[in-house]
Design a protein that fits this description.
Layout (H helix, E strand, L loop, with lengths): L1 E3 L2 E7 L3 H8 L4 H10 L2 E5 L2 E7 H20 L5 H13 L14 H8 L22 H12 L2 E5 L6 H14 L5 E6 L15 H19 L2 H9 L3 E5 L11 E5 L7 H8 L7 E6 L13 H9 L5 E5 L9 H17 L1
Parallel strand pairs: 5-9, 5-10, 6-7, 6-8, 8-9
Antiparallel strand pairs: 1-2, 2-4, 3-4
Helix pairs in contact: 2-4, 3-4, 3-5, 6-7, 7-8, 10-11
Length: 342
């Protein structure tokens, strides 16, 4: 670190390529945020990061980068992305000062302090803590599977919390730094009615299909957090068709409404899984919207993959419905009717 004429230069040497990517971000998106957010020069060369500019601005950036490095190395609390988000917010609010310094080897205290005032930024649940939010025995089994297995396939009627609990587990994994990305996907299949040609650009056309996933996200993260994470591609909400050709590393990937996938789509989706990633597939076999005669990829996968080691299958029932009690009675009435008709 050198200081001269009101300017400060600081350099960081990362331990390895993985740490460099964690701090600089995918396609250097966090590097650009550091540069533009603090109004300094920020140049990365391989595993080295150089900061230069007005002393007070560089000092604020230095504290943020040190906290990000600590978050990555300790794997506890918040991710480097979240640390940077909060540091930039404090800097914009004029709150960046030496009292939140990570100096003196107390980086862990700094990271905790950075999140003291973060709206909706409660600490992630401890490992095993997810099961405490279960409201039924079936949900408890589901949450246990989410914590212990890399691939979880969940089947059950509407209202059992399949999607909500999967998104909750994904957000907690993102907060804890266990994954770098959260990807939510659905097949774009109309529910028994023809919508015709929808107006607008691509995002506006697919939003009606993806709205339930955004609803689940907004239950756990505020609107601005979802927008920031989406802008930085930390959170993606995409139609299933746009998953083809990708390999998804360090990601928590959720496929919702999987009963409406074809067998080819299901195989395509499951084979997107990359290193250090987790997959959750949810679906209700009683709500098929595929063309008549088209087999469901979810039910086909159950037959083909039911005994594959490492994949957990969880079946929720009407007793696990946590919506209005009328929903439970409606589901049971349809089950009786369909059972009598078969």
């Amino acid at each position: 670190m050198t200081e001269e004429g009101g300017r400060l230069s600081v350099s960081f040497d990362f331990q390895d390529d993985d740490e460099a990517q964690e701090i600089l971000g995918i396609r250097d998106i966090q590097l650009r945020m550091i540069r533009d957010g603090f109004g300094i020069q920020a140049i990365a060369r391989g595993r080295r990061l150089d900061l230069d500019g007005e002393a007070d601005r560089v000092e604020s950036a230095r504290l943020a980068v040190e906290a990000m490095i600590n978050a990555h190395r300790t794997k506890a609390g918040h991710s480097p992305e979240e640390v940077l988000d909060t540091a930039l917010q404090r800097f914009r609010d004029g709150e960046s000062d030496p009292n939140i310094s990570v100096g003196g080897g107390n980086a862990a205290d700094q990271e905790g302090d950075l999140f003291t005032d973060e709206g909706n930024g409660e600490a992630p649940l401890p490992r095993g803590g997810l099961q405490k939010i279960a409201r039924t025995p079936g949900q408890a089994r589901y949450l246990e599977a989410l914590e212990k297995h890399d691939i979880v396939m969940s089947l059950g009627p509407a209202g059992t919390g399949k999607t909500y609990l999967a998104v909750k587990a994904a957000v907690e994994a993102l907060k804890a730094g266990e994954v770098r990305k959260l990807i939510l996907s659905r097949p774009a299949v109309e529910a028994g009615e023809k919508l015709g040609f929808l107006p607008g650009d691509f995002q506006q056309k697919v939003n009606p299909y993806l709205r339930p996933l955004y609803d689940a996200l907004h239950e756990m993260l505020d609107y601005d957090q979802v927008r920031r994470y989406s802008d930085r591609e930390i959170i993606e909400v995409v139609p299933l068709a746009y998953m083809r050709g990708r390999t998804l590393n360090n990601a928590f990937i959720i496929l919702d409404e999987a009963q409406n996938t074809t067998t080819a789509q299901m195989k395509m989706f499951l084979t997107r899984m990359g290193a250090r990633s987790r997959i959750v597939v949810t679906g209700d076999p009683t709500q098929l919207d595929l063309p008549k005669g088209q087999p469901s990829g979810l039910l086909h996968a159950k037959r083909v993959l039911g005994s594959v080691k490492g994949i957990s299958w969880v079946e929720l029932e009407a007793a696990d419905i946590v919506r209005n009690p009328l929903v439970t009675r409606i589901v049971k009435a349809y089950e009786r009717h369909e059972g009598g008709s078969s």
